[in-house]
Amino acid sequence: MSSVRCSLVAFALCLAGCTGTEKANDLADFMVADSLQGKAENETRSSFFPAKRLSRYDAIIKKYSRRYGFDWRLIAAQIFVESRFEVEARSGMGAVGLMQILPGTARHLGVEETMLLKPEQNIALGCLYDRRLYNLWKNKEGTNRIAFTFASYNAGRSRVLRAERRAASLSQWAAVKSHLPRETQNYVGRIFAKYSEYKKSHF
Known about the structure:
The chain has 203 residues and is mainly alpha-helical.
């Protein structure tokens, strides 16, 4: 077994709430492309419009999005916002790679920092982390649940929980987002905007 595959297995074992049963039960409005658009519609559109590639990492994004129950275009939108598909991207805070994962987070989960520069490793870990956060927001539904997931990815779940307590409506992203940093509000908004764009051009 390769070191990449071993690291992924170790990471998966560290994450609670990522079982197959929970994945089957937790899918929401933004999950899995076929739940958003019927297979018949997809096939009809595909016959008129040739497939386009969003990035060189499309196959990897599709693989791990499917594994963890997300529409691959949603994850691609997140990656675009995080790094613009630059595999060696680094933030001022030290986040690394396509999905901008902090080395401390990787080490905590038993993954070497150097592995974060490997596209498949980075995308796999990012999708797993998305899924873990998604599972923690069981009191949200649909678009709100996705928004809280991405806000937690960007700002940390504790900070989002504090913002939620200050908001008038605990379940609505529209009410909570104003209590979060502008960066986080923009982060979530940009992902949704890019996702809408990708849905129109990729079926």
